[in-house]
Design a protein that fits this description.
The chain is mainly beta. The chain has no helices and ten strands. It has a domain of 77 residues: SH3 type barrels. Bound molecules: zinc ion.
Length: 122
C-alpha cells in the first residue's frame, strides 16, 4: 500500500491565523470530547493545535513535591484547531464567525447566525 501526504504536517512559512485564539470559548466538534465547551488556554500556531480547558484530558502521574502531594492529575492535551468551533453564548452552540467593524475601527468577530459579537474579555 502506498501512503501519500506524508509532508502534510509541515509548518507554513508564515504564522497561520486561525478562527480561534487564546481566551476564546470554543466547542469541540470531533473526537472523544465532542460537544464539550471550554476556554482556550494556549494556541500553538506552528502545530495548529490548541489547549482547551477541560478538553482532551490526559492523566499524568506526578511525584510528590514540597508544594503538592503528587498523585494523578488530569491535564488538557493539545487538540487540533480544526476540531474546534467558536462558541456563541446566544445560540448556545458552535458557530461560524463573520468579521465586523466597530465605530472606533476595531475589528471584531461576530456570530454569523445571530450577529452577537464574540470577543473574549481579557
Ligand atoms: Zn449566535
Amino acid at each position: 500500500m502506498i501512503r501519500r501526504g506524508l509532508n502534510k504536517g509541515l509548518p507554513k512559512p508564515h504564522e497561520a491565523k486561525y478562527h480561534v485564539k487564546k481566551n476564546d470559548l470554543v466547542v469541540v466538534i470531533a473526537g472523544k470530547d465532542k460537544g464539550k465547551v471550554g476556554k482556550i488556554l494556549q494556541v500553538s500556531p506552528r502545530k495548529g493545535t490548541a489547549i482547551v480547558e477541560g478538553v482532551n484530558l490526559v492523566k499524568r502521574h506526578m511525584k510528590p513535591t514540597p508544594y503538592s502531594s503528587g498523585g494523578i492529575v488530569e491535564k488538557p492535551a493539545p487538540i487540533h484547531v480544526s476540531n474546534l468551533m467558536l462558541y456563541c453564548p446566544k445560540c448556545k452552540k458552535g458557530v461560524k464567525v463573520s468579521k465586523k467593524y466597530l465605530e472606533d475601527g476595531s475589528k471584531v468577530r461576530a456570530c454569523k447566525k445571530c450577529g452577537e459579537i464574540i470577543e473574549p474579555k481579557e
